[in-house]
Here is the input.
Amino acid sequence: MSIIAIQYLEGLAHIPVEKARNKLSAAFDILPIAKVLLGWNLPEPLVNMCAEECLRNGALLYRWHPLLTGDGTFKPEPQWNTIGLNNKPVSGFKQLPEFTFACPNHPEVKEAVHKNIKQLIDNSPYQGVFLDRIRFPSPATAPQEHLACFCEACERKAASQGLDFALVRKSISSLLSDPEGIKKFIHLIFNTEYPVHEAGIESQAVKTFLSFRARSVSNFVRDIALGITDKGLSVGLDCFSPALTFAVGQDLRTLAGCSDWIKIMSYAHTFGVAGLPFEFINILKWLIKEKGFTEPDAIKLMAEATHLPFPATLKEIREKGFSPEALVIETNRAAKAGIKNCLPGIELVDEEDLTSLNTEQISADLEALHDAGAKGLVLSWDLWFIPMKRLELVREVWRL
Here is the structure.
């Protein structure tokens, strides 16, 4: 039986309760929805309505919760921000606070997040928590500024593990100073199996730093997840697509052991945070504009590092996104990493300058994910904006 989850009411606290009920009820009539991942900072009547509808339809209600960023109510302190290679705080996507990350190694962050989660789930109607924003900022737009974190807390913890941040900084600077070093750097952040023992001391130092970041995220998530499961609640995780996880400090194999299921954001046609076109176009533009690579050479390098079938040009990536074959590869990688319950996310919402969708493409992507053996799907991003015909398409292609 396929597990179908939906994300609902992110930032939509103004929606009238009965209208929100009607949309959710109609979705239940079309699909066997098992999990409703409910947005944060919603008024109690909306939460209670969703709890009622889930109970009526035998679904589990999850609190959809951004862990290392603010949620409108919980606001991380500025001194908790991640710090980039340039010793400046890494600003969020479009300067948005909801995409500005706190460092998981800062001792005050863990205490504050623990307290916030406890308040949210005590005496709540939720059966689970869906943890989002469990990572470091993506370095794709400007690795020399956004690769994080180099704060004092990270440096202290790294030193306790024998990792010298001065060597890491020197190594990154050296690698980024010439074309061959840049190629090594790209392989390091996008390929966890890159043979660093053959690539030199600098590559080894950078790989050790990237592994340290991944452990930092995993340890933080494990501690938070234990506090949730101790209350009898299930834990789901929102993770980048496998080709991108190491770049943001996510180790899928370890995170699989911290959760009951994982959604992978293998969005093949999304030009926003976590979307494959968005992240890869940004790193390609950096290689071309900042590092002097030709467009064909930059694309070839990314294809070699990620082992994904890249479109031939930036224009094609922008217009068509990534192929169903790429989704199969990413789903198989998730399974290889030990994720027993992998639920790929699939974008079903049309939004100008964000998604590029059509029925033929959605059908092909759904077929690919089904044939790849995915345990189910997370319908993204928000049910409120998904046309009912697309829910019917999911039912038809997945034979639900």
Notes: The CA atoms of residues 82 and 91 lie 9 Å apart.
